Amino acid sequence: MGEGSKPLADAFFSYYGKVFEDGALTAREKALIALAVAHTVQCPYCIDAYTQDSLAKGADLEQMTEAVHVATAIRGGASLVHGLQMLDGAKAQMM
């Protein structure tokens, strides 16, 4: 992406790199969060990258699987809550 605008690509990748450094959260914790988010946004490239990154940063299969289950619960919960829109619409039409 740097071919079209190297300054913007450089700025993004500088930011991206800083985000994943140790801070209040460890780099391992951030990799697990990224793995969960990758599943939520369904990015196969990100899933592969953060599977490898999580392993490289010391996460184990149990932690990675639990992160995916957290993403699944949040995604499913969001769908369920959006069901209220259906409920409200159905109630309005049935009155």
UniProtKB/TrEMBL annotation:
Sequence ranges assigned to domain Carboxymuconolactone decarboxylase-like in this UniProt record: 8-87
GO MF term list: peroxiredoxin activity
Gene3D superfamilies (UniProt xref): AhpD-like
Pfam families: CMD
InterPro entries associated with the record: AhpD-like, AhpD_core, AlkhydPrxdase/COmuclacdeCOase, CMD-like
Source taxon at top rank: Bacteria
Database matches in PANTHER family: ALKYL HYDROPEROXIDE REDUCTASE AHPD, BLR3452 PROTEIN
Identification of the protein by name: 4-carboxymuconolactone decarboxylase
Organism for this UniProt entry: Rubrivirga marina
